[in-house]
Each structure stands twice: as structure tokens, then as C-alpha cells.
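Structure first, sequence second, as always.
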């Protein structure tokens, strides 16, 4: 099961110029479609005077959700080359927007592909890339005398403890890599008094 993916840690920018046209590129880390749409709305407002605001995004651990948009450029000359760069960097959960200010000289389809590809690559090269894990959360409760046993399993499975309460009846939430979730649940279920109350 794949439960890691690479994304960018920060917003970054790149620039490409050709025959008077300027291509301003922006790479933005995003978590879902809603965030993508909010970002795009902002870009359109900020660069309302630009000739084209083209983009591509990829979402999900294996990049199963993606979209390309040429915004009036010849089909396949803007969005696809941008997406190609996201793929060649091996990234997901990222939006790359390239804003074009037209310089008066047509670049032709080959020139446009190079321009959008190079601008997108410049923005992504300036970003810090990090690896993230796809995590799941569960909540559990157990009687206080079993604390050591429970803590030992949590440590073995490398789960993160969230909001623990150590009382007569202890409770906490755990965040764990998706690929280790079943192992954690199985081991905890063997401890007397442990009750897994919910999992997401």
C-alpha cells in the first residue's frame, strides 16, 4: 500500500521570458479541490490584466486527481506541459499556475510548450520538496493499569498521540501511517480493557 507522497513545503515562483512574452509561474501546495478553486480565484483577480492564466494540478497519494487548463492557448500547449513538470518532479497535492503577459510576437505551439514547461519547472525548482505520509486516526480508551502496555504498542507502531487524558479511564486519539493502521488495531485489541471508539 502506498502511503507516502512528495509535495512542496512552500509557495514558490519562477519566471520565463521569450520574444517579449513574460510567463510568471507559481507553485502552491494544496490539500483538495476547494483549496485549488480558492487559489485560482485569487490568481484571476490578481492577474486580471494578463492574457492567459493557465494551470495544472495533481491531488492524491498516487496523483489520481488532476486537471489541466489552457485558458485560450492552443490545446495542449499550456496545461499539459505544466502537468508534465509536476509529474517529472514526482509531486502531488500541488497546483502550478502560469500567468502569461503577451509580448506581441506569436511563439507557435512549440515555443509555447517550451515556455510553459520551463516556467513551471522554474517554480517547482524553487520550492522545498518534502515527503508526507498518508495518515489515519483512531480514538481509544483503556483502564489506567494498562497504560504501559498500550504505550509500548503505540511506540512500536510509531503512532502519534493526540489529546491524551490519563485518568482512571484513559483516552486518547492516535495518528498513524495508513499502512500500519491494521497492525496497531490488531495489537491494541489484544490488550484487556482497550476499546477503540472510532476510526477515520
Amino acid at each position: 500500500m502506498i502511503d507516502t507522497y512528495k509535495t512542496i513545503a512552500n509557495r514558490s515562483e519562477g519566471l520565463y521570458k521569450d520574444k517579449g512574452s513574460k510567463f510568471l509561474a507559481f507553485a502552491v501546495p494544496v490539500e483538495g479541490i476547494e483549496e485549488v478553486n480558492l487559489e485560482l480565484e485569487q490568481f484571476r483577480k490578481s492577474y486580471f490584466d494578463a492574457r492567459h492564466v493557465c494551470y495544472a494540478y495533481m491531488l492524491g497519494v498516487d496523483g489520481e486527481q488532476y486537471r489541466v487548463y489552457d485558458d485560450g492557448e492552443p490545446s495542449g500547449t499550456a496545461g499539459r506541459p505544466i502537468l508534465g513538470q509536476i509529474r517529472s518532479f514526482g509531486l502531488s497535492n500541488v497546483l502550478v499556475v502560469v500567468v502569461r503577459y503577451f509580448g506581441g510576437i506569436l511563439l507557435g505551439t512549440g515555443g509555447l510548450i517550451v515556455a510553459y514547461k520551463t516556467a513551471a519547472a522554474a517554480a517547482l525548482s524553487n520550492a522545498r520538496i518534502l515527503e508526507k505520509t498518508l495518515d489515519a486516526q483512531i480514538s481509544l480508551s483503556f483502564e489506567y493499569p494498562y497504560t504501559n502496555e498500550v504505550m509500548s504498542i503505540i511506540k512500536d507502531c510509531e503512532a502519534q498521540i493526540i489529546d491524551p487524558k490519563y485518568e482512571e479511564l484513559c483516552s486518547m486519539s492516535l495518528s498513524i501511517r495508513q499502512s500500519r493502521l491494521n497492525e496497531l488495531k490488531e495489537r491494541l485489541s489484544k490488550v484487556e480493557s482497550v476499546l477503540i471508539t472510532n476510526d477515520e
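Margin note: Residues 134-199 form a domain with the Alpha-Beta Plaits fold (CATH 3.30.70.240).
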